[in-house]
Design goal:
alpha/beta; inorganic pyrophosphatase (n-terminal core); Diaminopimelate Epimerase, Chain A, domain 1; 6-stranded parallel sheet; 6-stranded mixed sheet; 13 helices; 12 strands; binds guanosine-5'-monophosphate; binds manganese (II) ion
Length: 341
């Protein structure tokens, strides 16, 4: 398997770990399968190396990830501020997983910036910020879970992992690759998946737990969202907007809109899809593309965000009623790139 990181990086990590006892593992706001899966697995690896850890996050994660062993111990700032503050302040090492700039952890950014302990990044997004003492950053890869797997087997000196940890990593690699439909076109990805199956992962069980775990309301919200999708064939783009009122009608639960943004890309000819969801003080955006249209650039330039070439996120700060005309103006500016993508 190709080495993604240098001996010096591993030596530095080992040196940091030798003098550490309590780690804080931080994952991004609106955590997904990759964030939760990679964090739980890293906590196991650290434990094996005699480092205790707490996983912290600013807001809660979706119900369809609650089966992940150890996820019940994740400390959620919006539920228990004191517990999260203490976990961060008493840590002698901090791991940042599945995000590459501290603004992605929102409310926790300030608390982290007040700490002076080493900050280690493990992440697969483009252009990491200079907020870290040591970076394990590699963007042409499926997921942070895959990076944690690679780093973990190197540090532990074995490919044998307990079934529950293999399941968590499998979940991260599966969800971030859209159930193996993108970001996974290289043999090493499937060699790792094969090893996770050898460790006891039952593929169909995990697929069922993640993808067949929705409420009736979530399915109806999806139907509603698709019914109001706007398709701009002349720009090869489509978008869906959901207001707070829309969400309320379908008893929105965290995670319910996950995956919605992928559907418009199934329309023949569409290369750009956007989902806009009204939140309290902004509009949360998800961007997806096909082929060589760069949504990371679009999200950074126009939507205070970023992510990957074909999958990014961001926000609009205008009022909900102005987001559609504003968005269409921006899409029109990309006509040339969209039509040649
Ligand atoms: P999603 O649309 O599923 O929320 O996110 C797609 C990708 O973009 C993920 O890799 C996620 O980490 C990243 N992302 C989502 N929201 C933001 C954001 O506000 N800022 C940045 N920089 N990345 C984001
Ligand atoms: Mn990820």
């Amino acid at each position: 398997m190709k080495n993604l990181f240098t001996k010096k990086q591993y030596d530095n990590l080992k040196r940091y770990l030798q003098s550490a006892k309590n780690a804080a593992i931080i994952i991004h706001t609106n955590p997904d399968g990759d964030a939760v899966g990679s964090a739980v697995a890293l906590a196991y690896i650290l434990k094996k190396l005699n480092v205790d850890s707490n996983i912290v996050v600013s807001n809660d994660f979706p119900k369809f990830l609650q089966w992940i062993d150890g996820s019940d111990k994740i400390m959620v700032y919006s539920k228990n501020k004191h517990e999260v503050r203490t976990a961060i302040k008493t840590a002698d090492i901090i791991f940042c997983l599945d995000f590459n700039s501290l603004d992605r952890i929102e409310i926790l950014e300030k608390i982290i910036r007040e700490t002076t302990v080493p900050r280690i990044l493990i992440d697969h997004h483009i252009d990491p910020a200079n907020d870290f003492d040591l970076k394990f950053s590699y963007y042409p890869i499926s997921s942070t879970s895959e990076l944690v797997y690679r780093i973990g087997i190197k540090l532990l000196g074995t490919k044998i992992l307990p079934e529950n940890i293999a399941e968590a990593l499998f979940c991260g690699m599966m969800t971030d690759s859209g159930a193996f439909s993108h970001s996974s076109s290289y043999p090493d990805f499937f060699k790792i998946i094969a090893n996770l199956l050898d460790c006891g992962v039952e593929k169909d069980k995990i697929t069922h737990l993640v993808y067949d775990n929705f409420t009736e309301n979530r399915m109806k919200l999806l139907g509603y969202a698709l019914s109001k999708m706007v398709v701009l064939h002349e720009y090869r783009a489509a978008y869906i907007t959901l207001s707070r009122e829309d969400l309320k009608k379908f008893d929105f639960q965290i995670g319910d809109t996950e995956g919605f943004v992928n559907y418009p890309l199934s329309i023949k000819g569409i290369v750009l899809s956007l989902l806009l969801v009204e939140k309290d003080d902004h509009i949360k955006m998800s961007l997806r593309s096909q082929g060589n249209f760069d949504v990371n650039e679009m999200a950074r330039k126009h939507f205070h965000g970023g992510g990957h070439f074909n999958a990014s996120g961001g926000k609009m700060l205008c009022k909900y009623e102005y987001c559609e005309p504003e968005l269409e103006k921006i899409i029109k500016d990309y006509e040339k790139k969209l039509c040649s993508a």
